[in-house]
Every structure is written in structure tokens, then in C-alpha cells.
Amino acid sequence: MAGPVCLNAVETRQSGRTSGRRATGLALAVARFLVIAITTYLGLLAVTFFIGRVIPIDPALAVLGDRALPSVVERTRREMGLDLPLIQQFYLYIKNALSGDFGNSVLTTNPVMTDLRRAFPATIELATLGTLIGSVIGVPLGVLAAVRRGSLTDQFVRVIGLLGYSIPIFWLGLLALVLFYAKLQWVAYPGRIDIVYEYSFTPVTGFYLLDSAMQGQWDVFRDVARHIILPASLLGYFSLAYISRMTRSFMLNELTQEYIVAARAKGLSETRIIWGHALRNAAVPLVTVIALSYAGLLEGSVLTETVFSWPGIGLYITNSLQNADMNAVLGGTILIGSVFIGINLLSDLLYRVLDPRTKAA
Amino acid sequence: MMMQRLAAHSRSLLAGAALSAVLLAGPAFAVTPADTLVEGFAIDDIITMDPGEAFELSTAEVTGNTYDLLVRLDLDDTSKVKGDLAESWTVSDDGLTYTFKLKTGMKFASGNPITAEDVAYSFERAVKLDKSPAFILSQFGLNGDNVAEKAKATDETTFVFTVDKPYAPSFVLNCLSATVASVVDKKLVLEHVKPMTPSADYKYDNDFGNEWLKTGYAGSGPYKLREWRANEVVVMERNENYHGDKAKLARVIYRHMKESSGQRLALEAGDIDVARNLEPNDYDAVSKNTELATTSAPKGTVYYISLNQKNPNLAKPEVRQALKYLVDYDALGSTILKGIGEIHQTFLPKGVLGELDENPFKLDVAKAKELLEKAGLKDGFSVTMDVRNNQPVTGMAESFQQTAGQAGVKVEIIPGDGKQTLTKYRARNHDIYIGQWGQDYFDPNSNAQTFASNPDNSDAGKVATLAWRNAWDIPELSKETEAALVEKDSAKRAALYQELQKKVLDTSPFIIIHQQLEVAGLRGNVKGLKLGPSFDTNFVWGITKE
Q1: Calpha distance B474→A108 (Å, rounded)
Q2: Which of A56, B247, B421, B424 is the most exposed, having the fewest neighbouring CB atoms within 10 Å of its CB?
Q3: Any chain A CB within 8 A of the CB of B230?
Q4: Distance from CA of B527 to the nearest CA of A (A)
Q5: How far apart (Å, rounded) are the C-alpha atoms in residues B381 and B110?
């Protein structure tokens, strides 16, 4: 009687110890992640802040313009706190930021957070649609290219990819505008929405496609779609180029593996082997590629946003930077930093879900 | 799993394709609403809509259409002003007191009556806020302590303005036609003031509604401001309470469009009615299109190259002269400035009192070489030039670099972002600078002061005129500029400015090249669009659409 009980107790103790170890392991991982995230943020802020202060642009002048009197410039510098030592300026900024106050943008006069809440959905909407287009077309193209390696199809996909990757996107954007907007009139002109709907449509989430569909305003939806389709396709083409190349190389790698030979020996159909086995394994690294390309687009593609007058995050930050509007630049940097950290985390998680080996470990 | 996901994706792809097919079917020619004028306009310079603070060109157009002034520039003869809110005015014999009589029965867009009290408050808040354009008023001896006394309402319709010297009345009145003197609705503004803590820099306990007016509106113009969203849009709507002829169109929308080519495409497609920032090639294409029309007007902005006198080579009078012969004015005028600029070498733009139409300089390499030899620089010299990376200055700088090189002057161009180049220029750290100068207000003194006056050339100089920025020490000319301010006789005053311009033309470190022509491309059905001589006189209330 005593033996088994004793054994059980030992077992229990042992399993308790392992789960305890696991818990500490998890806590450690979380702590490590937090430390990394916080230092990343601090580093990001410090670098942006000090670069912003050492660039040879006087932020006060950016607010006041060319014709302001020196006395007004001096006073404005004091009002903006630019006469304080840099370290103190940085400390004040961090202090305010921690309490949720990221300051006001001098260019738009709004609180930076209000501006970002306006600009970011525009970028997300565009980037999501772009990535969707890029993956839905890019992955199958890459698979085809890998399967028919060296064939005409492969060459064709390669040319498409190279073009997408090497043609400057603003040039392509302008050409596309001339063709699809000016000549064919298939799509709407630059901007997010037609001026006619300026006051008949109230966005809720900031994602216009979603908003107009939810409100049942189908004429607005149609208009928004006509505006977004061209820039989204361009971004989609750009990420397609990258995604299809990466898919191809991942697939080539998988197709030489022994399990493929084994599957063929089993007599599985080629379709099943390629789409069911090879791609499924290639999907693991592919998710990271797509996630990173998505994160890249979320950063706001400045050139696309400029050509298409898209009021997104890239245009906002570039404009702010050129005017030494540092509150806006810092706020934008924090946002983009968060997006990157978030997407990295997410793709790590997806990795775990998709790759059974990571579960065992 | 991936298979299913892919399948799901391809379904949505199909749905998407079907959807686009629906969307793209039947492309109708775009038309803007009949009662609305849509302008494509680069409005990214707007940072505030408060007339007491705004000093940017695009803002001037909006405030010019949405606010009223005591007096306005007379567009039939721009050397004069005419009454706007003021019915009449008198100047006292000693030239110090200006008494304005307001028209009666006028209302703000809010419905509040317009009284002399509103005028006094507008002057008070502009002077006390002391933002960039405040000097246009405070140069008459106004400050926070005395403004209530010097700009006051003596009854409902009488406003009295007292200046510190017997200035030329034309000068005083011209300054009062500037945006900063716009009349705001006191009652409405007072509802929106924000309490402030008085400090050494700011002595008042409230912000005079500045924060609210940055995006708000409290005016009485033909249009009222409905909304400004930075880098996106400005929307103006007809003010039904306007005291004069009502605006023809119900709505005017300025849509932010940065690129000339984008504006042209949108104009051709009919998505905008007016394109405001066309570059020469696009402007040319628009003017050849039978469905479109163009218009242009000289603006009070001159483009110049300036030579920092801190550079020992550039400080030599012969070198200054020589460089004036090394600009290919004709070639510039017929190429990169075609349609957007007129060669103009004197500092007062056309249309201003005292303008002088003399362009003595031509490209003359031999003469320039001769002058350089006289200066002891037979083999030329090397020098840097700060250039903002936008047009037309980049093209002009490249042309100058090439022609100067013919006489052995090696110009190294330092391209820079606008704000960066400007910071350097204002600190007097440049050799050669190329830029433009727009009048602060429509009076000869504005440009005379900046090009021909430098009361204190020390690095601590308080008045950063262009002469100061280029370290041009000119005590004599500074006095002459000041003297022209108190010449009461307009004809004599004009003659004084012509004299000044000749001297600056001859000896200054300024190579003034051209006066800006503002251009616009418009759809054929837009009638009555007339660009004004200044940015705050680009009036839109007379525009109709057929």
C-alpha cells in the first residue's frame, strides 16, 4: 500500500516540479519579451528624438515660416520648450507620453493621437487589400514556378517578379493613373473618397469599405472601391513580386525532400503532393515572409500615398519630418514600432501553430 | 489547412473580380456638382486659419474669401484701397489719427451684428497674440499695453486708429488691407477663449480664442469656412448673411493635390474644376486642350539670387556686378519660367505703387570676365549655393551654375529641404542663396524694407531683413527707406521708391530675376475666375459654372 502511494507522491512532486519549471519558463519568456519590447521602444524613441533635434531644421521656423521676426521666433522656441537642455526635453516628452499625452502636431494643430487615429486606418485598409492581392496571386504563381522549374511559366513568373520589384512604384503609379484613370476612366482619381460624399458619409471605424458597407451606403462603397483599387493593386503587385519569389524558393526546397519521394512512391496524385504536402510545409516560413511584407506596407508606403494623395501614415510622417514636426514624427514612430513588434509576435505565434515541431519543444 | 485557406482565398478573389467588373462597368465622365467649385490646390502650407496668426499663402486665399476688412485693395487700381466694412474714413491733419465710419446693418455669418467694437477687438487680439504677422499692425507703435487706447471704438460704428508717426496714409491703409487686420466676431470668439496662465512671454489670462480659431471660423466674408483638414481639404460655404452681393456658387472646395501632373489628369477628367499648381509643361498642355482654359496673373512675389557679404569674394562690388551679368535671363524666361514668370529685375513687383520697369542686365560673359579681372579674380573663384529642392529654383540654379562657369566662377550647388536651407540662410551661413520673397502686405515698403534696409548689421540684429541675412551694411539706404514711409504725397512717395530701386539694382548683392505669374487651368464651363494681384485677393465669390 505504502509503496504506490509513495510512488504517486513522488510522481506528483515530479510533475509539480516540471509544471513549475514550465511556468517559470513562460514567465521568463514573457519577462524577456517585455524587457526587449521596452528597450526597443526606449531606443526607438531616443534615436528618433535626438535625430529630430540634431537635424539642421529649426522647428520654430517650421511653424512660423520665412517671414517671421526674430523676436517671434525666439519666443516660439521658448514656448515649444526648445531652449531647454536636450536631456530635459527628452525626459519631459517621455513623461507626457507615459501619461498618454503625445503632444500636438504643429502642422495640423490636432493632438498627434487624433491624427494617427485618422491616418492609420487609411494605411491599414490599403495595406490589407494590397497584401491580400499579393498573397492570393503571388503564392500560386510561386508554386507554379517551382513545379515547372526552368519552363516558360517559370521565366514568365520571374519576369513579372523582377519587374514588380525593380520598377519604381511612383512611376508605375503615375503610368497606371494615366492609363486606368485618365484614358480609360475605370478608376477614380487620387484620394480616398469623392468630394461629393464629403458630408453625406460619416466614417465610424475609419475603414471606409467596411463603414460604407455596414451603413448600407452602396454608392459610397462603390466610390471608395473605385478609389482604393488602383493603389491597392500596385502595392499588391509590389508584394506579389516578393512573395512569389520566396514561395518559389521555399517550394523548391521542399520538393527535394525525402517525404516527397516517399509520397510519390505511395502513389499520391501530383496535385495532392504539391498543394497538400509541399506547400503545407513551405507555408511555415512563408507566413513570416507575408507578415513582414504586410508590416512593411503598414509602415505606410510614402511614394504610393503621395502619388494617390492617400492620407495615410507614410504621408503623415514624411510631411511632419520635413517640417521638423517632432511630436508627430515621434508618435508615428511609436505606432510603427508597435506594429512591427506586434506583427513579429503574431508571426511567431502562427509559426508555432503551423509547425508541429515547435509544439513538442 | 492551407488548402482550405487557399480555396477560401480564391473564392474571395473570384468575388473580388466579380465586384471589380461591376465597379468598372460603364465609366461615366466625372462631373463635379453644379453648385460646387472644386479646386485642386497644394494646401500643405496651411497651419492655422486664425487671421491673427496666419501668414501662409494658401491660408491668405481662404481668409480673403471668408473674412472682411475695414478696407480692401482696389483691384481696378492696386495702388489704392477701397472701403469694405468701412463706409468712409478721414485722416487728421497731423497724420496721426485715422477715423473709420462703418457701414450699418451688417452681420457676421453667425448672425451677430458687426460693430466697431469687433474691429477694436480684432486689432487687440492680433497685437497681444503677437504671432508672425502682428508686426504689420504693431509697426505703427502698437503694443499689448497701448492697443486698447490706440485702436478703439468710440461708438457703435466709429473706429479710431492712432499711429505713432505721420506716415504716408497710403502706407497705413495698405497695411490695414492685410489679412492680420481681418475683423473677427468678438461675441463668438469670446465663447471659445481658453484660460491661460500669464508668464513672462505671455502676459494675458486667455488665448483670445487662438486655439479655437486655428480650425474654427468667426468671420463675415462672402463665404464661410466649413472645415479645414490639414493636407486634405478646405470647404467653404456661401454666407447667406453677407453684407454685399451674395456668392454665386453654394460651395467651394479646395482639395489638397500636391503634384502638377495629378492636377492636370484630374482637370482633364473633370474631377476638379480648377487646377492651381500647374508646372510649365502641364500648363502648356492644358492651354492646348479645347475643353479647358487657362488664366494667369502677376503676383507680388519676386525670385532672386543673393550673395552673402560675409564671403570676401562676393563682397567686392565688381563681383556683385559681374554675377548680375552671368544670369541668362532670356533663356530662363523662354524655358523653365515660361508662363509662370516674367523677367523683372527691380524689387517692387508690378502693380505696386512706385513700380519700376527696368531690366538692364543681360547675359554678358565678356563683360563679367572684365569685371572679375578688375576685382583681382581673373581666374574666377569657387563658391557654394544653397538651393531648395523644388522648382523653379532648382532649374534656375542649374542654369546659373552653367553660365557662371563660363566666366570661371565655379558654383557648387548644395540641395536641401526647404526648411533646412532656410534655417541656414537665416543664420547667415550661406554663400549664395536662391529663393523668393512675397510681399507681407500690398505696399512698396514691404519689399523696400527687406531689400534696402538693414538698421543693425551685427549678428544680433533684431530685424532679419533680406539685406541683413546677406550682411549688406547700408546705413544710408536704410534711412532713405524710412524717409519714404512718411512722404504723404503719393506721387512723390512713388518717386522715392523708384530711386531706391535703381540703387539696389546697381549695387546690391541681390540678383532679382523674375516676378511670379500665378497660373490656373480651368474647365471650359467655369466663368468669372480671376486671379488677384496678391494671394489674399484670389476671390472666388464671382465664379459661376455653366
Answers
A1: 40
A2: A56
A3: yes
A4: 21
A5: 63
DSSP three-state, residue A260: helix
B420·A136 Cβ contact <8 A: no
Dump the DSSP string for A311-335.
-SHHHHHHHHHHTT-HHHHHHHHHH
What are the CA-CA distances from residue B240 to residues A102, A320, B220, B221, B235 (Å)? 40, 37, 10, 10, 16
pLDDT digits (tens, 9 = 90+) for A24-34: 666 777 788 78
Q: Quote ipTM for the complex.
A: 0.76
Closest CA to B179 of B41, B74, B53, B89: B53
Contact at CB, A309 and B23, closer than 8 angstroms: no
Does A114 lie at the interface with B, CB-CB under 8 angstroms? Answer: no
Cell matching residue B534: 496678391
Q: Which residues of A touch B130 (CB under 8 A)?
A: 72, 75
Would you call B265 and A195 a contact, using CB atoms and an 8 Å cutoff?
Answer: no
Helix axis angle, A152-166 to A218-255, nearest 10°: 120
* Coil/strand/helix, residue A211: helix
The pTM for the full model equals: 0.83
Res. A145: pLDDT tops 80: yes
CB proximity A306 to B under 8 Å: yes
Q: Where are the alpha helices (DSSP H) in B289-392?
A: 317-324, 329-334, 365-374
Best probe of the B interface among A117, A185, A202, by most B CBs < 10 A, is A185
Q: Which residues of A touch B461 (CB under 8 A)?
A: 70
Residue A171 forms contact with B (CB below 8 Å)? no
C-alpha B400/C-alpha B324 separation (Å) is 10
Q: Which three-class secondary structure string do you get for A37-82?
A: HHHHHHHHHHHHHHHHHHCCCCHHHHHHCCCCCHHHHHHHHHHCCC
**By CA distance, what is B22's nearest residue in A?**
A222
Q: Does A196 touch chain B (CB under 8 A)?
A: yes
DSSP bridge pairs for B51? none
Quick one: DSSP state of residue A300?
Answer: -
C-alpha cell at B276: 492651381
pLDDT exceeds 80 at position A359: no
Q: Which residue of A has its CA nearest to B28?
A: A185
The set of residues, in sequence order, having a beta carbon less than 8 Å from that of A168 and lying 6+ positions away, is A303
* B429-466 pLDDT tens trace: 999 999 989 888 999 999 999 999 998 898 887 778 99
User: What's the confidence (pLDDT) of residue B444?
Assistant: 94
Which grid coordinates belong to A104? 500636438
Please answer whether residues B380 and B407 qualify as being in contact, where contact means their C-beta atoms are separated by less than 8 angstroms: yes
Nearest chain A residue to B226 by CA: give it: A199
Locate A271 and state its grid cell.
496535385
For residue A291, the model assigns a pLDDT of: 87
Type and span of the H or E element at A253: helix A218-255
Whose cell is 459610397? That residue is A220
> How many of the other CB atoms lie within 10 Å of CB of B35?
11
Residues of chain A with C-beta less than 8 angstroms from the C-beta of B48: 109
